[in-house]
Design a protein that fits this description.
The structure holds two protein chains of two kinds.
Chain A (H helix, E strand, L loop, with lengths): L2 H26 L4 H17 L7 H20 L5 H4 L1 H7 L2 H26 L8 H22 L6 H20 L6 H20 L1 H9 L1 H18 L18 H14 L1 H21 L4 H16 L20 H8 L3 H4 L6 H9 L2 H9 L7 H9 L10 E7 L2 E7 L1 E2 L14 H5 L1 H4 L3 E7 L5 H14 L2 E6 H10 L5
Parallel strand pairs in A: 2-4, 3-4, 4-5
Antiparallel strand pairs in A: 1-2
Helix pairs in contact in A: 1-2, 1-3, 1-14, 2-3, 2-6, 2-14, 3-6, 5-6, 5-7, 6-8, 7-8, 7-9, 8-9, 8-11, 11-12, 12-13, 12-14, 13-14, 18-19
Chain B lengths: L2 H10 L2 E7 L9 E7 L7 H9 L5 E6 L1 H10 L2 H8 L1 E6 L6
Parallel strand pairs in B: 2-3
Antiparallel strand pairs in B: 1-2, 1-4
The chains are: A mainly alpha, B alpha+beta.
């Protein structure tokens, strides 16, 4: 089987799995730690796919939307990081089963914070608010629990303890690499404390033995050591590996070793991944969809990042659409005098005037033609600051055909677009509202004409994915502004 | 809690329940609000929060659909108990709180 086909199929399997688990959790009102762990692993895989430049913009949107669904579902079950809160109690008072359960719960919460942070990097998730505050406020209790394991020399749970510590350091380093500053000081202190405890474990005889015998955790720790050094600005030596073959172990472990190897030695990663690809593929396809698909997909993404496909790849993803709407037919219900605007005569001077407007002027003038929306809301949207998390220049709630929709309007002024026509490369900005809003319509407002490629791409997505997108461009836009006395 | 914030929120969203909870001292930095509305169906957590904080950046909202709020009530979790133990009813049907 071609790697392109495997990659494409694994993405579809992962998307289906995540959407199933999310819908199950909304139906039941809860998600188990086991499912939360799986969903988080799937999200990490999607995060890695999104690093691949060859993805088409609409596929990127669908993957980001899938990420949003999964991330929202796992984040909702965090419950103020109560698993962190009770960790010391559970570990110090419980038997070995209670301790193992506590570690699973801690890891589930840590993985959720990790995927939230990864989603934040991509502007899919936010960080902050009362729940996220508890991530740093309650983590010391987890560290007390891990110190307790060390102090009491509970060697039989050293391995899961090490995983808890490395997972914590992974989420903290990812946070420190983010642009968010709310928890920076706390995160630095917590990471330093985590490293201290980690060092005590690895220096112990039993901890050292685990790291010598277990390649998977050994490489995972090496990768994280390098990340910690970067995050804390430490000048420690860079961790490397001399691994020349994968141990004879189960597929899940092989895939985890390969994931770490990607970060430590890319040449060796390619060599070992290619040599194991057939057997791993065989095993993954013979098993029920689950964890190994996500780990395999992470490795495939790393591989495709290093060896990109020669031609673009179009995926076959679930469109996540709720049916379509006749948006063109409804423009008369959104813009004042829209139907009469077709009869307006537009001169070259009118077009020149339109092209001279900057973004703010264009937004103000078009806002004055919108009907059925509270003037205060329109004014707020027109003036709102445009941060990286904003999905469109204007976002309004409107009613069409007895249904409520979010109307998103990205704007491109004649000043902003330097080329003769609007290039296809801005398509991602037009499609972006579909990540965050299931019931949305997009009206792309542009002073210049769209290029033929952009028009064709939008039409194709309307047909393929049912996306409600309309375009107000150039002459048609000038007519609408003119009939409303705004072209002056 | 300023009345104009309640007015703005209730005029923009079809709100089933609006509660203020947590620290309600006048010098508290954030305004913790629970907003239950089916307008949040199909809207990401990030976007729900953005829609609300666009009205006032000091609001720290928990935005739930009615089904999500029902699940929260049934779960009897820390979050729900925190809200219920120290809340001020602002809008909607108070019978929906419990």
């Amino acid at each position: 089987m071609e790697i392109q086909q495997i990659f494409s199929e694994q993405i579809s399997i992962t998307q289906d799995f995540l959407l199933d688990k999310v819908s199950e959790s909304y139906k039941n009102g809860s998600m188990s730690n086991h499912n939360s762990r799986l969903v988080n692993e799937g999200l990490v895989a999607i995060d890695k796919i999104l690093n691949c430049d060859f993805l088409q913009p609409h596929d990127r949107i669908l993957l980001e939307k899938t990420y949003r669904h999964g991330s929202d579902a796992v984040h909702e079950r965090l419950n103020y990081f109560s698993n962190y809160y009770y960790s010391y109690q559970n570990v110090s008072k419980g038997d070995i089963n209670a301790q193992q359960t506590a570690f699973i719960q801690i890891n589930a919460d840590t993985a959720t914070m990790l995927t939230t942070i990864l989603g934040f990097h991509r502007h899919i998730c936010g960080i902050g608010g009362s729940t996220d505050n508890y991530y740093v406020e309650r983590m010391p209790r987890v560290l007390w629990a891990l110190e307790y394991v060390l102090k009491k020399q509970l060697t039989e749970i050293y391995l899961p303890t090490l995983y808890v510590l490395i997972n914590l350091s992974q989420s903290l380093t990812e946070y420190l690499f983010s642009t968010d500053n709310q928890y920076k000081d706390s995160a630095i202190n917590l990471l330093s404390e985590t490293v201290n405890i980690l060092d005590k474990f690895t220096k112990s005889k039993e901890g050292n033995e685990i790291l010598t015998l277990n390649t998977q955790i050994n490489l995972f720790l090496k990768v994280q050591r390098n990340r910690i050094n970067d995050a804390l600005g430490l000048k420690n030596k860079i961790e490397t590996t001399e691994l020349d073959k994968l141990p004879d172990t189960k597929t899940e472990h092989k895939l985890r070793i390969l994931s770490s190897l990607f970060h430590l030695d890319k040449v060796q990663f390619i060599k070992l991944f290619e040599s194991e690809l057939a057997s791993i593929t065989d095993d993954v396809y013979r098993s029920r969809p689950g964890l190994n698909n996500f780990l395999f997909l992470q490795c495939l993404s790393y591989y495709c990042l290093l060896k990109p496909f020669a031609e673009g790849l179009e995926l076959n993803l679930n469109p996540l659409s709720n049916g379509s709407i006749d948006l063109i037919g409804n423009l008369k219900n959104i813009f004042n005098n829209y139907e009469n605007s077709h009869g307006e005569v537009i001169s070259e001077a009118d077009i020149s005037l339109l092209l001279s407007y900057n973004d703010e002027a264009l937004r103000t003038k078009l806002a004055n033609t919108i009907i059925g929306v509270d003037k205060g809301v329109l004014e707020r949207e027109r003036q709102k600051p445009h941060g990286v998390f904003e999905i469109a220049d204007m976002e309004l709630r409107i009613r069409l055909n007895q249904e409520t929709y979010f109307l998103c309007m990205p704007f491109k002024s004649g000043i902003e677009i330097k080329s003769q026509t609007v290039p296809e490369s801005i398509s991602y900005q037009i499609f972006r509202p579909f990540i965050h809003l299931d019931k949305t319509i997009v009206i792309f407002v542009t002073a210049k004409r769209c290029s033929q490629n952009l028009m064709n791409y939008i039409k194709r997505m309307q047909d393929k994915l049912g996306w409600g997108i309309a375009i107000l461009e150039n002459e048609e836009l000038a007519k609408l502004l003119k009939v409303n006395g705004q072209l002056n | 809690m300023k009345n104009d914030i309640i007015d703005k929120l209730t005029s923009y969203f079809d709100i089933e329940l609006l509660l203020e909870f947590g620290n309600r001292e006048s010098d508290a930095n954030d305004i913790d609000l629970l907003i239950v509305s089916d307008n949040f169906i199909g809207v990401s957590t990030l976007k729900r929060k953005q829609f609300v904080t666009n009205f006032d950046s000091h609001i720290d909202p928990i935005c739930l659909t009615t089904i999500q709020f029902e699940h929260l009530k049934k779960s009897n979790c820390t979050l729900y108990n925190n809200i219920i133990s120290n809340h001020k009813f602002l809008y909607g049907n108070p019978a929906n709180i419990f």
